[in-house]
Amino acid sequence: MNTCTIPTQFGDLILVEENHHVTALNWGRAPSEDSTQVLEEARRQMLAYAAGELQQFDLPLHVQGSDFQRAVCDAMSAIPFGDTCTYGDIAKQLGVPAQAVGGACGGNPIPIIIPCHRVMGAKGLTGFSGAGGVETKVALLRHEGAGGFLI
Question: Per the residue annotation, which of 4, 73, 105, 116 is the catalytic one?
Fold first, then answer.
């Protein structure tokens, strides 16, 4: 497992790479810094995203989890930059209950890159599992110019 820390306006982010794939993004500082091609490219893309110069990540990702977790992550990855959808929208797409989608969104191991912040509740803004909670979600949505969410 290799890690690096990326300072952004959304907080310090720890990227984790295993077997040439990004497997996690967490908030905080990595205990050690590693330099791999995957982490260097992930750093470059994350900094470009934070600077408003990148709208879609193109990184090798591996979501560790159930087939359902991966399906929800795939659905979240398809939400365009600046757009939002609801847990119910994804639930209809996958033929599952919205609560199950909510749980999978909360368990997203690679937030921001897999944009769980773009998923809303039926009545608007909901929680966020990253550091800073809802405030970080709002900051990410504002950064992307997403409209139509309720605060």
Answer: 116
